[in-house]
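From the methods appendix. Each design record in this collection lists the tokenized structure first, followed by the designed amino acid sequence. Records were kept in a plain field format so they could be parsed without special tools. The example shown here is representative of the layout used throughout.

RECORD:
FOLD TOKENS (574 positions):
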């Protein structure tokens, strides 16, 4: 082909090249605009999920309607971050849970009825940018999804005033509870142990397969649990507390086992958020002792001053208390509480009775009822609010004490009944009765210790000083003891008998009958007066002492917040 015939071909190829370049440029612009728009929408979804989780999770107060609060905050967040009205819209705002899969990845699961809600999933949509290159299908809409979690938790304990830490009481209690062979922890060791805290995740061993709504620990020996706690304390630099835990572990019966979930109440999903929450090491030790000894009564022996005589006290733990990791209750959720240890105390005094001319038994019993604490509000620290504040609804239910005995102190629900104080024959001349008689004295009395309910506010830093619900132990016990005589039902039965081994006298003359009736009335009055005097001494010497040695209280309990986990909202899924 001649040169002048090729001059038009260059122009054609140039036009094709320019057209292809324009198409490539338009395609690059379209892809870039689409990427930027999708990225911007994802950023809005991430921010909206974080904002909605903060509001719906309760860190800024419990919303009346978490779903509505999350949706409203999503709209506000989109508007704050550049989303134009009627352009960027929430396609869905769903409350749910952050679930840990078997492969270690987190994914969002919508909440079912009465499940803990600690996450929000936000799905946003917006129109895709108009295309520069008018080819292909319509631009359509872009979608972005993100999930974030936020739920504040407080570690709450309802317990006794055993923080006084009397080694003479604690050593025998823990030794008997753990079945040891002699425990001798010093006052310094106990003080260090009870003032120390350990992170929960150091005690978590395994999650039992199939447990959906509760964190479960595998069964662990008591020494193993205590050694784990000792190792954690030592790793944190608290060697004195670690040494005390090791001494208790060395004394504990190795055959005894406990599932830590028996004394630490936390939901499975919550553990993912609050694994590092602190719990009291000494409180956990005491609750473990009470939990492992709930199948047997612990006996204390006393040598008392006259006229009380020798005595013994049996303590039966009915329901060990629990440390709990609690969050403000959301609408529709099942209430959860921290609780104290419930127990039954039977103290038996053997005083000498002038009226009876010998010894009688006076059984005094005490039922320590349940005290609970529920977290109603957590205000998380922020720029204008420098400290976390926890509000707790604390309740101490009615406790009872009385004179009598229990049908089965080892049973799951011991019930009080009248007790026999004296049952024996007496010689002629007793209370002016000219014939031998058989005397039986039975008594029963019940007095309630009023309950208490109040709002307690704990302000960080934590652990916080304890606050008390109910009245002081000694005052409550002495007040109840003072009421017992007015509630006392004393039944005296005097029956004439024949000579030793002989038949009962079928009939006596009217004068002897009148003497017996008068003697019964005088004996009842004398016994009421003596019992009234003995109750105060018995309550102060035995009841108060036995309860304090086992960590139980009557009429009141201490509530404390050990730790608060209120992290910033965390984005875990897109």
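DESIGN:
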């Amino acid at each position: 082909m001649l040169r002048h015939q090729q001059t038009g071909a260059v122009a054609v190829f140039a036009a094709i090249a320019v057209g292809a370049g324009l198409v490539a440029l338009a395609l690059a612009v379209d892809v870039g605009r689409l990427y930027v728009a999708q990225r911007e929408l994802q950023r809005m979804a991430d921010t909206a999920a974080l904002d909605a989780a903060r509001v719906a999770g309760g860190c800024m107060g419990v919303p009346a309607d978490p779903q509505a609060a999350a949706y409203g905050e999503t709209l506000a967040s989109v508007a704050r971050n550049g989303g134009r009205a009627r352009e960027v819209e929430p396609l869905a705002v769903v409350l749910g849970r952050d679930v840990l899969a078997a492969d270690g990845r987190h994914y969002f699961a919508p909440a079912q009825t009465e499940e803990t809600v600690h996450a929000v999933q936000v799905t946003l949509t917006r129109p895709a940018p108009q295309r520069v290159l008018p080819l292909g299908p319509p631009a359509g809409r872009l979608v972005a999804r993100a999930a974030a979690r936020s739920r504040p938790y407080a570690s709450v304990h309802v317990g006794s005033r055993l923080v006084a830490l009397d080694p003479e009481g604690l050593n025998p209690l823990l030794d008997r509870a753990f079945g040891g062979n002699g425990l001798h922890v010093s006052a310094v060791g106990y003080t260090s142990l009870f003032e120390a805290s350990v992170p929960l995740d150091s005690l978590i061993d395994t999650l039992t397969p199939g447990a959906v709504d509760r964190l479960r620990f595998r069964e662990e020996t008591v020494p193993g649990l205590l050694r784990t706690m000792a190792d954690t304390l030592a790793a944190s630099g608290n060697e004195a507390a670690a040494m005390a835990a090791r001494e208790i572990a060395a004394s504990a019966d190795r055959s005894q086992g406990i599932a830590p979930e028996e004394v630490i109440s936390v939901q499975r999903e919550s553990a993912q958020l609050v694994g590092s929450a602190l719990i009291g090491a000494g409180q956990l030790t005491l609750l473990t002792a009470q939990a492992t000894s709930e199948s047997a009564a612990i006996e204390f022996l006393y040598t008392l001053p006259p006229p009380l005589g020798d005595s013994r006290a049996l303590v039966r733990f009915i329901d060990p208390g629990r440390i709990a990791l609690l969050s403000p209750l959301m609408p529709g959720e099942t209430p959860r509480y921290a609780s104290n240890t419930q127990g039954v105390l039977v103290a038996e005094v053997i005083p000498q009775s002038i009226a009876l001319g010998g010894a009688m038994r006076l059984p005094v019993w005490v039922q320590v009822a349940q005290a609970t604490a529920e977290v109603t509000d957590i205000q998380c620290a922020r720029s204008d609010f420098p400290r976390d504040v926890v509000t707790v609804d604390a309740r101490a239910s009615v406790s009872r004490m009385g004179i009598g005995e229990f049908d089965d102190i080892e049973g799951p629900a011991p019930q009080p009944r009248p007790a026999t104080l004296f049952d024996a024959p007496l010689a002629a001349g007793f209370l002016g009765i000219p014939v031998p008689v058989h005397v039986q004295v039975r008594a029963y009395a019940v007095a309630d210790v009023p309950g208490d309910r109040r709002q307690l506010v704990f302000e960080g830093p934590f652990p916080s000083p304890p606050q008390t619900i109910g009245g002081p132990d000694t005052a409550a016990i002495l007040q109840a003891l003072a009421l017992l005589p007015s509630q006392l039902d004393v039944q005296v039965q005097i029956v004439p008998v024949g000579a030793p081994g002989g038949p009962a006298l079928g009939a006596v003359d009217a004068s002897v009958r009148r003497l017996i009736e008068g003697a019964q009335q005088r004996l009842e009055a004398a016994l009421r007066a003596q019992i009234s005097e003995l109750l105060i001494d018995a309550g102060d010497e035995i009841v108060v002492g036995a309860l304090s040695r086992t960590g139980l209280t009557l009429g009141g309990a201490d509530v404390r917040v050990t730790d608060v986990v209120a992290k910033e909202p965390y984005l875990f899924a897109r």
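APPENDIX NOTE: The longest strand covers residues 437-449.
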